[in-house]
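in:
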């Protein structure tokens, strides 16, 4: 895992924790491979909100068609890393 991906995972976990007001978990202890829908309980509105925060945070566009693919924090981090590389 690259430092960029690790930093992205930590920041995305922090955003999800803040948006969902999750207690008893920190960005450092958040399991990046948990399924956000099945294990965390994120619904489509939560995911849309998180996508907007990520868009503003990273300055990338996240297509609504891509939302169903963004199932874990690790996958979101890889998605963002790829999008940022495409911008360069």
């Amino acid at each position: 895992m690259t430092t960029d991906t690790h930093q992205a995972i930590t920041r995305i976990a922090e955003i999800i924790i803040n948006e969902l007001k999750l207690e008893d978990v920190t960005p450092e202890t958040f399991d990046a491979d948990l399924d956000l829908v099945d294990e965390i309980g994120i619904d489509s509105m939560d995911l849309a909100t998180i996508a907007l925060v990520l868009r503003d945070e990273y300055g990338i566009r996240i297509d609504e068609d891509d939302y169903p693919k963004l199932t874990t924090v690790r996958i979101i981090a890889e998605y963002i890393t790829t999008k940022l590389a495409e911008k360069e």
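note: The two ends are 20 Å apart (CA to CA).
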